[in-house]
Amino acid sequence: MFDRHSGGESAILVHIDFQQSASQDKHQEDLQEFVELVRSAGLDVMDIITAKRASPDPKFFIGSGKIDEIKSVKQATDANVIIFNHNLSPAQERNIERAVEARVIDRIGLILDIFAQRASTFEGKLQVELAQLRHLSTRLIRGWTHLERQKGGIGLRGPGETQLETDRRLLRERLKYIDKRLEKVSKQREQGRRSRKRANIKTVSIVGYTNAGKSTLFNYLTTAGVLAEDKLFATLDPTLRRISLPQGTDVIIADTVGFIRHLPHELVAAFRATLEESVEADVLLHVIDAASDRRDENMEQVEEVLTEIGAETIPRLEIYNKIDLIEGAEPHIDRDDKGRPIRVWISVIKEQGIELLREAIEELAQEEQFNAELRIPPQQGRLRGLLYELQAVEAENAGDNGDILLTVSLPKSDWIRLGRQLEKDLTPFVVNP
Length: 433
What we know:
Largest sheet: 7 strands, mixed
Radius of gyration: 25 Å
Oligomer: single chain
CATH topology of the largest domain: Rossmann fold
């Protein structure tokens, strides 16, 4: 359903540096990361064309002079695909294809292709296809511009649709089917999370920028044997394992897909079932490439995605990995003014600081419970129901005026998450904290 790169394909890369301003930040990308993405997709880089502009050109995104340069380089190198390090509109993509007479892929299309190559489970393949179809739905006309309305006449009367309309209808039906299947997957994951909560087992989810070392850390902690390569998006399908920590605390640890700058919304939406492992986690381990020149920017991008999926309030532990590449850096734990661990400096490859990390995870997993008595009015029945789903209710009594008095005990992170889910401040319902 989507363009897939085969081995031996060669590409011309196009990267534009825009003048630094808040309005152009959505177009600004990193060239080194772009080259790594292309190589992760299995393509040979024939040439890199760069330019500087104040803003994108409405028709070609780049200037007409650069279009001529791409055509010349294409003829000289015999490259068969042009890849832009930016998100192009459907019209811009079509205009460039016509001008250079070659296949054009934008940044979103490239990331989707990498995801399609990495998906190995049925769920992962469904999620990738959903993202591809949503992206493709705005570009259908590219493949059908040569077709007109189906002809009439004896034996030639069609259903009264253009081929484009027929294809759009089929695409909508396929999207509905995939949504239903992924909804089933989401419910199965929810059942698993409820079982873990009943067993009082905390879930720790590993998040971070792609290629920060998440899967390497996951393998070291769990001996799971998950694919860990020096490639962007080497891990796509989520993996969960149970581990025991130094003082005997058992936790479920989850390895998830890496984030990237300007992660396409199609992917965030399509991978909601996978990302729920992060949204519903008790603790997030934010793995950071401590030696990266773009460390702070990458951290900001991860925080943006966590906010987008609703995980910004979950307690987290920052893991500064690859300290072996920083001169003078030693493994240690940074703590806040209350003594809680907030940052651990380690090197997974050199096996430095791993025991400190285990200790820090255990401290956060043994989170303080939220114990309180709540007064819930009759019209707030959903809050009562959700508390029972979380198995947080220890006692229930009838109050005045039909109110319900509940004695509850649940992790503070679950109490915060509950307020976000209901989109309201739950403080007024607390009688005795």
